[in-house]
């Protein structure tokens, strides 16, 4: 990757970092291999690498659904896991990366809302409404539900 390509990738990644870091209760930390990690308490929402790779963890079933829908790819190093990899090469890829990270964020928020502290902390986030706004498919919603995550949606 040439210098100009590296600068372009870094600018695109910075847009992802700026957006995700602004979400309620998300913390950013350094991640290995020139990365930035997004966490919600002890839970990792995902991470980005400066050269334009975004890795996002999901349940294996949800990851399979997202790959089948061509919304992401299997992880580039551990394809049998629930992790996904998305490559950022342009503006559309930035939006897709943010979409995937928001889906992961909502998964964790929904789980945390089942605890007294999480219910108070994330009171203002309507997971069902946000999933609707994200335009998730019935299959993605079903993958959430199969894990017992979205019991009341």
From TrEMBL:
InterPro entries: Luciferase_dom. Residues 43-104 form the Luciferase domain. It comes from the Archaea. This is Luciferase family protein. It comes from Halorussus caseinilyticus.
